[in-house]
Amino acid sequence: MRLTVPSAGARVLVHTPGPRIAETVHGLLDQGATVALRVDSSSAGGVVADLASRRLVTFDPDADFDAYDLVLRDPWGQPGAATDEHDSPAGARATAGRVVLVGGGPGDPGLLTLAGMSALQAADVVVCDRLAPLGLLDTLDPGVEVIHVGKIPRGEFTPQERINAILVEQARAGRTVVRLKGGDSFVFGRGGEEWNACIEAGIPVSVIPGVTSSIAGPALAGIPVTHRELAQGFVVVSGHVGPQDTRGSVDWGAVARTGLTIVVLMGVANLEPLARALVANGVDPRTPAACVADAGLATQRVVRATVADLAAAVADADLRPPAVTVIGHAVAALAAPRP
Question: Is 129 annotated as catalytic?
């Protein structure tokens, strides 16, 4: 089901959001629209609150319809829309199914690979994360079942074990299952766990690599992760727990001493302790650094500072996840575009 806006920059109001509102919003944003929801912010929760926190939508509970170019009811909220993971999609086959792990890239639909798009078009079922290019889903056949298993920070959460079980259950029912997620499945995407779950269950599984945000995010902000004479390599680490957290296994001292560009994923909440650890282990506090949020989307924002000042600059700018942090002299390697 493809929604078409009258023109780029159109103001669209969506009322009565359905359980798959994220697909509707992403489909509209991909066409250059700005989207408001006829929802009161005080009652918004789950996926709707997540969309607002990422500045993908605004709330307008007392909307004047005449102020918008397009007003629509969320089509995925209509009776009959497949929303339950146990629904049987049209065309489900009785033969053995399979699972395809597809990396969707950093969010821009244009950065999904051709192989990834072909896999989507051949799918009976799509199991997707919140950071995948969800706007592409409304271009698929209406009979394709979509199962959202996103993990909203401090919000709705589908355990990884349940995601593994869904993949196996759907494939055992004879369906071609695409597991679509942001970035690359094997870069902090738990794709390896999903691969192993399929192998252990005897389910055929394959992988289509995705454009990882660890490289794409900086590049889209004009930041190379390597640059001759400045950085001969880069290291990618997870920042979802801080240096003093017992759950962490990153040796931040070793990372600091590499002399390479440091790329941190999922690290916005821990920027201050991470920076302190790096500086304490030898990184010059004046080292250029940047944080890139919503890379490749219309809402992309970039904050630049020294590594010592980056956490404060990000807080002052109210920059929020998803974001990629880059630390190293390559951050300042490229000249600014001419006006």
Answer: yes
